[in-house]
Structures are given as C-alpha cells and as structure tokens.
C-alpha cells in the first residue's frame, strides 16, 4: 500500500510540476516584447525616426530613405559610370560579377550629428543575401575603404546609387547568381525592423 501511495503522490507531483512549467513558458512568451516589423514599397518614404541598423549611436532621427528602383548590372558597368577601374582589385569580384544597383534618395531634416551605417544594410531574398559593395561605393564617392558611415547635411536631400554584391562565396567563386524577382532591403533592425520591398 505504501509503494502504491508513493507512486500516486510522485505521479501527481510530476504532472503538477510539468503543468507549472508549461504555464510559466506560456506567460513568459505572452509577456515577451515582440519585435515590430514594418514593410514599405518602392517610392515610399521611410522615416527612420531613430531606428538603427547596428547601434543606437547612429541617431537617425530626421533621416528618411526612399528607394526609387533596383536593377541588375555588373561590376564593370557600374565602375565605368564613375570612371573607376573596371578590373576590381579586392575580394573575388571580376568585371562580370553581378551587382544589384539601387537608386535611393536620402533626406535629412534637421539632424546635425546622426548618420546611416550603410555597411550593415542587407538586401535579402528567400535564398540569398546581398551586401553593400564597398569597393564600388568608395569608387563612386572617392573615399577610403574605412568610410562606412553616411552623413548628410541638415535639411538636405541626396540621390545616389548603392551597389550590392552577393554575400555568397560560392556564387562569387563560380560567377553563378540565382537572381530573383524581388528582394527585401533591411534599413533598420531596432527598435523597429524596417524593410523596403524591391522588384528588379
């Protein structure tokens, strides 16, 4: 009788403990802060409102981004536009390497000490991710490879081309790019993740 009683008590306590764990998990998940995600379309102005891609010090209040278009091109074609060297010297790129070029407007309304950290932007699809091609970016703006922040004078607008290269070593090595019809450009990750949908 004692053994049977012990088994019953043990079973009841075990089920009670499991129940408490399940309830605890439920309440933790319910109370957890869910990241807010906002989607935007081409030609829609995206106000960053202090949202940042990397660190809060970016201070993006007053900055906004509008993507006008995206197109597929090559490293060589983009370099010719800016009278740069069409034979890339860094990475594993060739003049035929595929580049996705975004036509973007950046606006700054009254911000005197903020910036945009372009280097961490990501152009994502279901199967791939493209990152800013800093070699071409530096060629376009005639700056050094260490320049990763984009700062705009207060109360001004600038339209520029931002080149993206694949982040996939296999694709770079074999010059094989599975190009898709649409991509998501992630321009901020916190506290709100802001994504611009782009069709090529």
Description:
- The chain has 200 residues and is of the alpha+beta class.
- 26% of the residues lie in helices and 34% in strands.
- The strands form two sheets. It has a nine-stranded mixed β-sheet. A two-stranded antiparallel ribbon has the order 5-8.
- Strand 10 (182-188) and strand 11 (192-199) form a beta hairpin.
- It starts with a helix and ends with a strand.
- The mean pLDDT is 81.
Offer a few descriptive terms.
single chain; 4 helices; Immunoglobulin-like; alpha+beta; 9-stranded mixed sheet; 200 residues; 2 domains
Radius of gyration: 24 Å
Low-pLDDT residue spans? none
From the 3D structure, determine the CATH topology of the largest domain: Immunoglobulin-like
**pLDDT averaged over residues:** 81
Give the class from helix and strand content and strand pairing: alpha+beta
SSE pattern? HEEEHEEEEHEEHEE
Biggest sheet strand order reads 1-11-10-6-7-9-4-3-2
CATH architecture of the largest domain: Sandwich
Number of domains: 2
| Overall number of strands | 11
What's the end-to-end separation, in Å? 76 Å
Overall body shape? elongated
| CATH top level assignment of the largest domain | Mainly Beta
Question: Treating each run of at least 4 consecutive H or I residues as one helix, how many helices?
Answer: 4
Give the biggest beta sheet: 9 strands, mixed
- Specify the helix fraction band: 25-40%
Proportion of beta-strand residues: 25-35%
């Amino acid at each position: 009788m004692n053994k049977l009683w012990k088994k019953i008590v043990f079973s009841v306590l075990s089920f009670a403990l499991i129940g408490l764990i399940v309830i605890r998990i439920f309440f933790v998940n319910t109370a957890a802060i869910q990241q807010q995600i906002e989607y935007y379309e081409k030609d829609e102005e995206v106000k960053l409102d202090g949202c940042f891609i990397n660190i809060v010090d970016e201070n993006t209040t007053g900055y906004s981004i509008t993507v006008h278009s995206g197109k597929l091109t090559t490293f060589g074609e983009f370099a010719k536009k800016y009278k740069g060297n069409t034979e890339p010297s860094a990475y594993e790129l060739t003049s035929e390497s595929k580049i996705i070029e975004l036509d973007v407007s950046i606006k700054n309304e009254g911000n005197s000490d903020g910036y945009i950290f372009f280097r961490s932007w990501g152009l994502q699809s279901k199967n791939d991710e493209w990152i800013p091609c800093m070699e071409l970016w530096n060629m376009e703006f005639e700056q050094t490879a260490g320049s990763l922040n984009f700062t705009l004078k207060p109360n001004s607008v600038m339209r520029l081309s931002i080149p993206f290269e694949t982040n996939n070593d296999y694709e770079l090595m074999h010059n094989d790019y599975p190009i898709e019809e649409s991509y998501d450009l992630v321009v901020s990750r916190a506290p709100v993740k802001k994504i611009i949908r782009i069709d090529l």
